Amino acid sequence: MITKIELNAFKSFPENSIEFKPLTLLAGLNNSGKSSVIQALRMYCDTALLDGHGTVHDIRSNFSSTSESVLVTCHFSDNKSDTLKLDNSTLVKPDKAPLYRYISADRLGPQTSLPLLRSLGVFPQIGNKGEYVLDFLQQFENTIIPDVLVHEKAEGKTLDYVLKGWLNEISPGVKFQYQTNAKTDSAYAEIDGFRPANVGFGLSYTLPILVAILGMSAQAPSGGWEGSWGEEWEEKKKDQGVLVILENPEAHLHPQGQTAMGKLIALAASCDIQNWLKLYLTYFGCYFRDERTSPFRWVGRKLGGGVGREEKRPRSISYS
Fold it and tell me: Is 2-98+273-312 CATH 3.30.300?
């Protein structure tokens, strides 16, 4: 598990460190640096320069010299650390990184169809926008979900059953089905027998979040993995840990749905799934109150430049 990230010469972080917990929540005003922290994590775990974010010049802090290297250092629970180093002519990638999945706030809503991922030597993907969520489901539908994450109304312990249980918590009585077509490399979903565009937006928008949390916790099917990638997947999870980064998981959900989502995320943090959430302090944020496992990291700008961050707790909400 990542226990701390250090940022040097990166955007609005000339020199900052942020501690991690099994569940960490980023909150703060608009344009305060929340997305930058997530960008740094994605750069460290995946691709040094993300699509659309420009060159080293674009991400180097205005408060650092042009000769200073951009550094993203991650510290781990085994007391080891590793660093991503970027400058105008050098790229040093880290050797140690968790198996991670990132679901963007810009994820897809209702779609008539979604693509299947056809790429050799790549673990099943959900996609940053959830574009491969049905492909991921097809490959993981028979995997076994840990007992702590199995919804009480699920008809079984496989991902397919457990996912439907949590969807029913968000929208009681809903029926979710999907089909894939290998000849056209496409898939489509039905909700209550209708196209996703003809039912509530929130279900399609939430699906990649639920699949990411449940899928990254999944264990081998009762009959074993069909391909060698499954054993490699489990070995990498064991050796390097799992990190799930979610942006605005509460979006487009009513309070009952937000409560269900918060419960699932908190439970996932108890079974070796490290979660980072970016959100705005709403009802959803008040669900997380365990200071040992789920601190808020409040990110805010300083008047003199750069950003500061501090740990905050949401005020409790009571209902009579």
Answer: no
